[in-house]
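Methods — Computational structure assignment.
A single polypeptide chain was analysed. Its primary sequence is given first, followed by the predicted tertiary structure written as structure tokens.
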Amino acid sequence: MNKPLSPSLIRTASASASASPNSAQLRRSVRGFTSQPVADALLRDCLQEARRAPSGANLQPGYFWQVCGTRREQLTSRLQQAYEAGAQEAEDYGYFPNPLPLSLRKRQVAAAQALYGALGVERGDAAGRGAQFGRNFRFFDAPVALIITIDSGFGPGGYMDLGMAIYGLMLAAQSRGLATCAIGAMASYPGLIRDALALPATQTVVCGMALGYEDTAAAVNQTLTARAELDAYFQRLD
């Protein structure tokens, strides 16, 4: 039986993960970036390293679309307008369990507390929370904006493989002094995104990603969400 989670899921970014942290221990979701551009060759290196992730039958599912220039401005403008208008679309796939168990709801709430607490946004400040959430649709103003898709014919195994590649990209970026944030909110507007980017109808919109150099002075980057205790998800069966 799973044991309850530790009382607090929140710790500050100043807490040390280990005596000699590696890329996985240092990686976290960064939502504040500098304007320093990312060299094309550096991004390509990260993507090529990410593709070394394990893949069943070496199918290597999924696509990474970099959105730049006018196309990016048009996409973010349309996304923000849709979000601010309260427009809703049917998502291509379900992310959260329905209903969401209380144990997972607690993790979700703790993550929100860490984020909005760092920004000084009170729980009842709907406008403040909405403004921060809206930054998802601007890729948090990162220099690199990615949309990640998968062929609609893939089942759960394909999502597992793509997820490993996405994490591989995050670690590759981290090892090169870059920061990332996966953007699940992009999956809320799959039709809009396919239309704006002229993507085939067979492409399922999985998420977005912001990538660039961290603004270490940004308040939004001053917290980490802690992970569940080992006993909550690991058991030895003899």
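Note: The longest strand covers residues 203-212.
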